[in-house]
């Protein structure tokens, strides 16, 4: 088993959902948490919760992964004792809008590509050289079943998650010969703020996505992430694909009527 006690785990997008749950599960194992997101107050709540429940250190900072200069500045500026990152969870991501290509909004497309693809690249580029130099590290990317199967109106979100899968495979190849591990975790329906963000704040529309099914929870995904991170150092879990029992593909969902 890889022991994460006192190791540094860096999670992007830890202010809610899967990132928040993962921060808590890594803290349970005694890891020190470096967490970021755009919403500072929400990050502070997560930090406080971890500090109350576990004897680990948390360092949180506001960072928008879409901004290359901000990513470089923030990661260069983290205190020296936080620089030796052992696990990077590239989790920050979103779906914005749910429209056909012919009706899609350019700003939604840019938000998804800039966050899910370019943001992931900026953060990875800043963190990976240190892992290679220290001969220790694990990059865990949040993909999606949307990166394996396209669905109507998923278009640009699908493309961004197909890109995450390609990058995951590419990283695994480029890192061959180093001890750095690479994993993608690709979930189906997980009830988080994801759908509220996709539907631009429309909570009622978002709740319909999970109606009549038992969706995955953020803790279910965090369990898988922590499992991959704690395998023995010679074991690389390349891909984890997981769905609720009530789902067979992005379009095939078994809904009970009441
Ligand atoms: P949430 O909306 O609950 O969480 C998304 C997190 O990403 C938030 O902490 C948000 O923080 C952060 N984030 C978004 N944009 C940025 C940015 N520009 N810079 C920094 N942080 C950012 O959704 P989930 O927990 O569900 O999503 C986490 C990941 O899981 C995403 O990559 C998503 O695509 C993926 N996923 C989700 C599934 C689902 O069904 N929920 C299924 C498959 C994959 P803030 O707004 O404070 O910046
Ligand atoms: C989120 C899952 O099916 O809404 O990545 O695309 S889905």
Layout: helices, strands, pairs:
Elements: E1 8-12, H1 17-28, E2 32-37, H2 40-53, E3 58-62, H3 68-76, E4 85-90, H4 106-134, E5 138-142, H5 155-174, E6 181-187, H6 194-198, H7 203-209, H8 218-229, E7 239-242, E8 247-249, E9 252-253
Parallel strand pairs: 1-2, 1-4, 2-3, 4-5, 5-6, 6-7
Antiparallel strand pairs: 8-9
2-hydroxyethylsulfonic acid binds next to loops.
Description:
This protein has 258 residues and is of the alpha/beta class. It has a single domain, classed as NAD(P)-binding Rossmann-like Domain (Rossmann fold). The protein contains 8 helices and 9 strands. It has helices at 17-28, 40-53, 68-76, 106-134, 155-174, 194-198, 203-209, 218-229; strands at 8-12, 32-37, 58-62, 85-90, 138-142, 181-187, 239-242, 247-249, 252-253. Strands 3-2-1-4-5-6-7 form a 7-stranded parallel sheet, sandwiched between helices. Helix 5 links the parallel strand 5 and strand 6 (181-187). The model has no long low-confidence stretch (mean pLDDT 98). It binds NADPH dihydro-nicotinamide-adenine-dinucleotide phosphate and 2-hydroxyethylsulfonic acid (8X3).
Structural class: alpha/beta
Please provide the ordered H/E string of secondary-structure elements: EHEHEHEHEHEHHHEEE
Outline, from the CA principal axes?
globular
CA radius of gyration is: 18 Å
The CATH homologous superfamily is termed NAD(P)-binding Rossmann-like Domain
According to DSSP, the number of beta strands is 9
Instruction: Assign the CATH architecture.
Output: 3-Layer(aba) Sandwich
Largest sheet strand order: 3-2-1-4-5-6-7
Mean pLDDT: 98
Whole-number count of domains? 1
Fraction of residues in β-strands: 15-25%
